[in-house]
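Exercise 3.2. Students should predict the tertiary structure of the chain below and write it as structure tokens, then compare their answer with the key that follows.

Predict this chain's 3D structure.
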Amino acid sequence: MRRVSWSGRGGRPVGADFTSGKWLWSDGSVDGITKTILAGVPEPKEHSGAMPSKGGVEMSDDHARAVAAYVGALGHQKK
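Answer key:
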């Protein structure tokens, strides 16, 4: 999987590579990722794209946890 970009073809990343196993805002646990999704990332550490709380969409805490589980699974794949 490639980094997220506006074109969808790689290019300049606007967010982290979820498959790298590198966690910038948490320990990579589902709880940690959920907290990041709920709080958002107003000032990114490595990328130009900020993330509003809940990704800027209406999302229940349960849905945020489901997204976190998916993102966590991407980052914890054995290579």
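Discussion points: Helices lie at 30-39, 61-75. The longest helix spans residues 61-75.
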